[in-house]
Each structure stands twice: as structure tokens, then as C-alpha cells.
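New to this. Explain the following:
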Amino acid sequence: MYVQYFQLILKIINSLNPRTLRYPNKSVLVFILFAISVLDSIGQSQYRLTTSNSTPSCYFFETNATQLVGTDNFIFKASINNQDSLPIPAKAQMGCIIEPRNPRWVLIKVLSGSQLTFNIASNNNLDIDAAIWGPVTGQDISNTCDALNSFPLDCQYDTLSPVLNLSNAIVNNYYLLMVSNFANDNTEVSIGQPIGGVVKYYYYCPENIQLNTSLSGGQNQYAKNTIKLGGNISSQSNVQAFSGNAIELLPGFSSGEGVVFESKIQDCNLVQGTYVTPTNVIPCESFDNHTTASPHLYANTLQNELVGTVYAKNRPQYRIGNQWFDMKKLGKDKKNDRYLWFYRHPFTVPNNVSLRTGPNCPHYDDVRYSQVQSYLGTEDTPLPNLEPVTTFLDIDSPFYLSTNITESGSYQRIEALYLKYDVNSDLNYSINGGSFRFNVEKFDGFEPFSNRHLRVARIGQNDAPKDFIIDFRINRDAALDRYIVTRNTAGGHFAVNTTFTRLADSTVYVTTFQGDMDTQMKLGPYEPTELFGCTFYLGKLPEGTYYFPLTSRKEEVVLDEQIMVRVRYN
């Protein structure tokens, strides 16, 4: 072993620039002194966290691991193609993250502070996601996995550089952090000390480490086999690089003033073991139609599929015929600790669809048959000739229309039309030039029909032709905000797409009844409105018919390849 130490010292010194050796600065002298000290085999126990016994501390980590590596700041190379990423247990509550690609797990011990803000970034500005759970029960890391049974304390999905807020943090308690390399591309992720407090990060040694990112602050990089460093060590930093076999300083490696850099051939003291699968005990949930879960079971004629969505905390199953299938996650309910799940199943014959949480749980049968319908409502129905608008109003609101169309009859039921809560209290409306109605209700409460809390302005039931014109005004003012409304369906029960075209500026809103207003989705390139997750602002569009895919927010899954948008003008 002493021969290995001496060979390593020579290799590191030989890799330095000759000019640097002739005129060494303070950091180089400090490095050489520390490099010589590798002959001292005393471990750095202050950077280790020892479990109480040799049992697995968490199934994410290697079994029979006896120690973790601690560091004040943490930089790591993210996995790609899920290499070295273990499966996530079925009962884990992943919050806003639909597809945790290439997850990396880090334990955090809070040393001080109660309101902490963590800034997480990739060195090349790629898309990464992050979430944090905890605290770990009893400050015992053998309970780490149990923390995943609850929803994350914070979760960041939409930005390239996640910012996580940990409120009411408890000093000396552990929390579990996950960083997901959603971009699935080469990147190095850095996590520094949080704003508002001090923490220690703990991780298990990877097989190898190769970093080209600058290292800064207190940084401990431990690997089982090889460490390769090719970046700068920032001034006044204290960096350790310990590995079981070799340490290489690549071209580009440098250090600033006042750097303490220590390297050592040293095992991570990890005992290899056999992978232990998690326990998948999942509580049963209710999917009784039109009650706590409110399933939305419909069909898609163009895709010849039966389709369904339902809210649940854990992945549910559906049955068509005699076989059970798992549903897929579509997104998170922004108001509750649950997710929106979906299935798409080839249609053969009309069927009752059953739902359940899993084996040994009750199953819930639909009260009707699900089947594709031939009527899609793609035709233009007549619009009245109204007096042109001379003075335009702007109510400045997205729309969500709850409706169903089943045939080409003259009138189709509108169950409810929702607008933003803070529209003018004197707003009233007219359909197809009829009498103005003053039944726009400000509603802030639980709506049993949709089984959700709503804070909206709501217009109740109306009957209207499939395509119609709606005018809004304030009191009895002459100024109007006029929209041409078109409806068409995917071909099943409550599967209507509604287009609102504003005549004042030719801008378009689209509401899809597939999905749900409380789960943010994406329509082609268009992002959802903040208020309604399945309503989209498309900007200005000329008259015509358009098709866009309806997907999860980051396009991980597709609910419908061809959402029809029908833009009409007088």
C-alpha cells in the first residue's frame, strides 16, 4: 500500500506544470505537504456517518453499507440512461415529478437554520428536477425510505435550475434529497450550502468520479475506484479526493490561492451486498364513481381507444375484460396530495371498466359502458348575424367549459363555464345575441359535482348550439368582449375540446376536457394557463382547423396525439 501512495504522489507532482513547480504558490506548497501526508493512514472520521448496525440503511443505497461520506458542498456527475440509478418503490410519493429520470439520492443533515433555500444547478444549464422529503423518523437513517411515503416538502419541475425551500427544518434531523437528470445528457450538478442555515450532505461512494466543474468550499469527493479531476479549485477551498485505486489530475486542473487539497488512496469502507427490493404495501383507495375519486372514463374515436383518468395517491390499475393493467402518471393535482393517472386501451367492444388500487383491494365498476362514438362534431354549425362590435371590452380571463356533445342537434348542454375569480362583479353575458344574463357567480368553495375546491367566477347551466357566439359586458355598457365558441369531441363521454376565438384581436383560448383543470398539461408547444391546467392560450391564429398533441407538462407521456382546434370568424 505504501508503494501505491508513493506512486500516486509522483504521478500528481509530475502532472503539475514545470513552471508551477519552479515558482510554487501557496496553494501548491500546501497541496504537496498534504500529499506527503497520505502515508498517515488515520481516517477522516469527521466526514463519515456511521449506521447503528450492518442492516441496509435504505434500499436506494447499497446494502450492508456501514458508512456514508459527508461534505459541505456537493458536486456530482449526473447519471444518463439510468445507469447506477435504482428503481423507485411503488409507494413512493414523487410529488410534481412524473418521470424521475436518472435519480441521485442525497441525505441532508440540518446543522442550523429553520427556513432553508437550496439552489441546485447543472454546469451546462440542462433540465434537472429536484424534490426533498423528511424529516427521517427518529433521526435514524434506516428509516430513510419511509420518508418517501409522504409527499415531498418541496418539489421543482418547471425550471432548469431547481430552487427548493425547506420550511420549519429541524436541527440535527435528516432529510432526503433527490435530483433527477431529466435532460438525460452529460451534466455535472452542484449543490452548495443553503440560504438560511448550514447543512451536511451525505452520499454513498460511487464506483468512479470524473469532474470538470470547478470545486469550491468544503468539498469531499470519495470513490471506490478512480477519481479524475479536470477543473479549477476555487480560492480558499478545502478539497479532499480519496479513492481506492487511483487519482488523476486531468488537463485543465488548477487551484486558486489558499487552497487546501488532500488526496489519498483509501477505501470507502463499504461492504458489498445483494440488492434488496422494497416492500410494496400500498393502502387501498376508493374509486367509487362521482364520489371521492371522480374517474373520467371516455373514448377516443380517432385513436380507436378507451381512455380514462382518475386522481389517486398511488398508481391504480384498470380492468377491461378479465385482465388488470397499471395506469400511468399524467401529473400532480396542484391543490391536493395526489396525482392524475391515465390509461389508453385499444377498443374492441363496449366494456365496463373497473378500477382498483391493486391486488387485494376492492374494485369499482363503471356505471355505464365505455365505447367510441361516431359523432365528432367537426362540422361548422350556423352562427347568427349580430350587430358588429364598435367598442371592445377586455375581460382578460381564460375559460374552462364543462360540456358534452353527442349529436348534431341544434342545442347542446353547457354544464358550467368558469372564468377567473376577480372578473368584474357586474359582468353579464349573452349567447347568440339573446338577452343578457346576470347570473355570473363568484364561487370560493367545494363543488360536489366536480369534487374539488374552486375559486372562480362561474356561469351555470345553459343550452346553446354546438358553435355559438358569447358576448360579455359590464353592467349595461355598450363595450363588448365577443368570442366565437366552437365545440368538437374526441368521440366519447365528456371528451370535448372547446375553442374561444376573441374577435377584438383574433387570439385563441382552447379548453380540453381530457386531463383535468387542476393538473398542468401541454398542448403542442403551448403551456397551460395558471388557473386551468388544461386551458391553453394559443395567441393569434387564422381561421382553420389545427391538430396538436395533448401531453404531460414535459411531454413524458401523451394523452391524445390529435386534439382538434377549430378557429372560426364571422
Observations:
- Residues 2-265 form a domain with the Jelly Rolls fold (CATH 2.60.120.380).
- The chain has three domains: 2-265, 296-365, 400-567.
- Residues 1-58, 270-279 have pLDDT under 50 and may be disordered.
